[in-house]
Write a structure and sequence with these properties.
EC 2.7.7.-, nucleotidyltransferase, 19 helices, alpha+beta, five-stranded mixed β-sheet, disordered C terminus, 570 residues, nucleotidyltransferase activity
């Protein structure tokens, strides 16, 4: 491209080459927009979010570039795969191999060129033992355990092809049709005009700062007041314009100190101010695209078009740092929107199920069920057999195959929960009386095999092993157990400590703080003077004895010694 300054002539790395391409694409896009300000950042509003073949979503820099890549080349299905992924499609399952089934071969079409995506990988090494663990395992550790590891990020470039660059449509028409029908965003005009999760966010003040729609003509984020002000929805020509403006200002608001710490004190019109406007523009465009809307350039941002072009032509690194900020900001926005959307969807489903008499059945005894993870399979594992059952919709077969991963061990107390759905994107595919299988397509296509336990089994486990490594859900059961035990003994008597000093102290269990509270009793109840953390690895009697021992060593409860002229007497 004319006027574009190349760099690193000694031999650009794969990352440098990718950034060169990304910068060229952004320059081309901005130059197109500068000729027509009403043109949206991403034209194909009906195009779904870019994903790999297994359903994992791309984000930030990769998502934007793949969307522009799809638009430029006319790709209608935003699914991408590496050359190795294409080859894996040709690997038969064990059953197919035994039966001699020959699969139609999938291949990249002759002459097709790949496109770069940039992914950050992490190496996690224990500071003392130097043992390496997977990043997904590291994320599951507690905050204290994480402190024992050094985490080294590394940017890597992978080359991908759009499915339209392969013969997938001819070789595997069923899979092709599934991808074609599953990736389009379908929103009618009424949904675009009223996007309920955003309306609820504003109504219930659930963003990181207040959002105030007011009947006036300006939309802005005030750093000093930490609030967003926008015109009322009725003042906009359509819902897309209203929500697009909101997302622009919300992206700005993520940058303040205490959130993403991106915004520094800068003068209006400076390079830093211009870059922040680009972050907000691209952030709002990506969020809009995610929810099936288009986003045109905000009129106030037009003044920065020239500045953006100059910085992109001078240094492609500019687009990397900018889009990394966009990624962080859009993640914060979409996580909050998605959480509200999931709550609304869950509420609607429960309401519908109740109307139809389809409440989820509990065991005959009415006892609560817990789910314990016995296998966690991710992109680095061979999940092709499970993928095959899922693709065919054969969930019974998938469940039987998943059970084979159970090694017969007991409760995994650290990963035992009251619900099988613990992460955003989790989907309960199938369960029977003993097992459940959870799939998540947003973290690389993971499967989690879970064994089901009754609450009584959880209680028995707590009695035997305590809660030292237990999840919060198990610890809640442990608290219930102590509260029940305490209630039972207080029907006969309240635990009383007679101190050496002659003081009489009463004990009670505080479930909210998970402590044994000790103090005096008045008409209103126990007035605690001391709180002792409850040790669930020991019995109630042992906890009471331990508290009594600690109290006895406190100076204020020692036996008083009185001095008389004739000597020391008690």
């Amino acid at each position: 491209m004319a006027g574009y300054k190349k760099y690193n002539n000694d031999g650009p790395s794969a990352e440098d080459k990718a950034l060169d391409l990304f910068a060229e694409m952004m320059i081309e896009r901005i130059e197109t927009i500068s000729k027509d300000w009403s043109k949206p950042w991403i034209t194909e509003g009906s195009l779904g979010w870019p994903k790999n073949l297994s359903g994992r979503e791309y984000n930030g820099m990769n998502a934007l570039m793949l969307l522009l890549h799809c638009e430029k080349n006319g790709y209608k299905i935003p699914r991408f795969c590496t050359f190795d992924c294409v080859q894996r499609l040709n690997k038969p399952t064990e059953k197919q191999a035994k039966e001699g089934v020959e699969l139609p071969r999938v291949a990249v079409n002759r002459g097709e060129k790949s496109f770069p995506v940039m992914l950050t990988t992490f190496t996690c090494i224990h500071k003392e033992t130097k043992e390496k663990i997977k990043y997904d395992d590291y994320k599951r550790l507690s905050d204290e355990e994480k402190k024992m590891y050094n985490v080294y990020p590394k940017m890597q470039v992978f080359r991908v092809f759009n499915v339209s660059q392969t013969n997938l449509q001819e070789a595997r028409p069923e899979l092709w049709n599934k991808l074609a029908n599953g990736d389009a965003v379908k929103l009618d005009e009424s949904e675009k005009m009223s996007f309920e999760p955003m309306d609820v966010m504003i109504r219930d003040n659930r963003w990181i700062c207040p959002i105030k729609p007011m009947h006036q003509d300006k939309a802005y984020f005030s750093i000093t007041k930490n609030e967003i002000v926008v015109p009322e929805k009725a003042q906009f020509k359509d819902g897309e314009s209203y929500y697009g403006t909101l997302w622009h200002e919300m992206t700005h608001s993520t940058g303040i100190e205490g959130q993403l710490d991106r915004i520094k004190p800068t003068a209006f019109g400076s390079d830093e101010y211009a870059r922040e406007e680009l972050v907000a523009e691209l952030g709002s465009a990506l969020v809009a695209q995610r929810y099936g809307m288009s986003k045109a350039l905000k009129e106030e941002s037009c003044a920065y078009l020239k500045s953006w072009l100059e910085q992109l032509k001078e240094s492609p690194q500019f687009i990397k740092t900018t889009l990394l900020d966009v990624k962080k900001a859009t993640s914060l926005v979409t996580q909050n929107v998605d959480k509200i959307a999931e709550e609304l969807e869950k509420g609607k489903k429960e309401e519908q199920d109740n109307k139809q008499g389809m409440k989820v059945e509990q065991p005959a005894s009415g006892e609560k069920i817990f789910y314990s993870s016995v296998a966690y399979l991710q992109s680095t594992d061979d999940t092709s057999r499970l993928d095959e059952f899922r693709d065919k919709g054969d969930y019974e077969g998938l469940l039987q195959a998943a059970k084979e991963y159970y090694d017969g061990n007991g409760i995994n107390e650290q990963y035992t929960f009251a619900s099988p759905l613990q992460n955003k994107g989790d989907d309960l595919l199938i369960e029977d009386k003993d097992f459940a299988v959870v799939y998540n397509n947003s973290v690389g296509g993971t499967y989690e095999v879970m064994l089901k336990y009754s609450e009584q089994e959880i209680r028995d486990h707590i009695t035997r092993y305590g809660t030292r490594l237990a999840s919060d859900d198990i610890k809640e059961v442990a608290k219930d157990m102590v509260a029940e035990q305490f209630q039972a003994i207080t029907k006969q008597r309240i635990p009383v400590f007679e101190m050496p000093s002659g003081d009489i102290l009463y004990a009670g269990y505080n479930r909210e703080t998970d402590t044994l509270d000790v103090g005096t009793v008045v008409n209103a109840g126990l007035v605690p003077n001391h709180q002792f953390p409850y040790d669930h690895d020991n019995s109630l009697e042992s906890n009471l004895q331990s508290v009594h021992s600690e109290l006895s060593h406190m100076e204020q409860y020692q036996e008083e010694e009185v001095e008389y002229s004739g000597g020391m007497h008690r």
